[in-house]
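Support request, please re-run this one:
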Amino acid sequence: MTGSMKGLVLAGGKGSRLRPLTATGAKQLMPVANKPVLFYALEQLVEAGITEIGIVTGETADQVRAVVGDGSAFGARIAYLPQEAPLGLAHAIRTGERWLDDSPFCMFLGDNFLMGGIADHARQFVDSGARGQILLKRVHDPSAFGVAVLDESGRVVRLVEKPKERISDLAVIGVYFFGPEIHQITPTLTPSARGELEITDAIQGLIDAGYEVQSSLIAAEWIDTGKKDDMLEANRLVLGSIQRRIDGTVDEASTLVGPVIVEAGARVLGSTVRGPAVIGAGATLVDSYVGPFTAIGPHCVLDGCEIEHSIVLDHSTVRHVGRRIADSLIGREVVIETSPLKPQAIRLMVGDHSVVDVV
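Re-run finished. Output below.
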C-alpha cells in the first residue's frame, strides 16, 4: 500500500535560470495558474496516498515554510529537512535519511510539473517489488538529460548523464521511487565534477549492487519549470483544463469568453477576458484585454492595456502600454507604464520590485 510510503520533496535549489525573478524567492514557489508549482507536487503525492512528506529546504526555507505550513491544507503532515548546501539530489536523500528511516519513498523535485499525477506509478512500484523505479519521458534531444537504457522487460540497465552519443531517448524526469536500500548506496558516492552527489550515480549503484530498478514511461506532459518558456507552457497546460468560475465582480461593460476564473475580490471593469485565463483575488482590470493562457496574480492592476499568454505575479501594475504584451513572465510589485516612444513588440522577463518604462 502506498500509505506506508513517504514523500521527499526537494525545495532547496536556487533557481538561477529564472533570475532575477528568483533572486528574492524560491523557484518552487513560482506560480503556475496562480498556484505555486510546489503545491502541484504536494497535491499529487497526497492523491497517491502519500501523506507523510518531508521537504528538503535550502536558503529559502523560511519562505517555503511560511507558504506550505504544517501540510494540513493538503491533507498531509510536513516535516522540514534543512540541507546544509545544494550538494546534489543524492545528498538530499542523505539529508532526509533519518526521517525516512526504513520506509519506501517517492522523491519529487519541487520545481517539476507533471500532468496526470503519480498514483499509478506509485502502485506499480509497490506491486513490482523493485528497490527503485524511475519515471521516464521520450524526448527529442536526449543530450540535455540523464537517460536510461532498458532491457526487454523495462528494467533499468544503465544510466548516462547528458550523453554525447544517442544511446536512448528516455529522459529521467524528476520523480523517483526508492526502497530503504538506497541508504546503503548514498554514503559510498563521491562528488561529481560539479561537486554534487548525483542521483544517477545512486541509481547506478543500486543496479550494480544487484537490486532491481524498474522504469515507468509517462505519456502525460512533464515540464522542468526552470525557464520562462517552461513556466508559460506549464501555465498553458493547467489553464487548458480549468472550468469557468466567477467569484469576483464583472460589470456590464465587460465581456468574458470561454473558461475564465475571476477570483473573489477581483474586479473586471470595461474589459474583455478571453479564456482560458485566471484573474487573481483582489486584482483590478480597467479598459483592458486579457487573452488566452494568461494568469493575472492577486492584487494586480491592469489599466488600458492588452496582454496574452503571460504570467503576472502579485501586486504588479501595467498601465496604458501601447502594444500588446505577450509571452511574458512579470514579477511581483512590478510597474510597467508607457513612455512616449513605442516599440514594435514587447517581450518581457521582469524581476521582483522592478519598474519598467516601455519606450
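The chain has eight helices and 32 strands. The longest strand covers residues 170-178.
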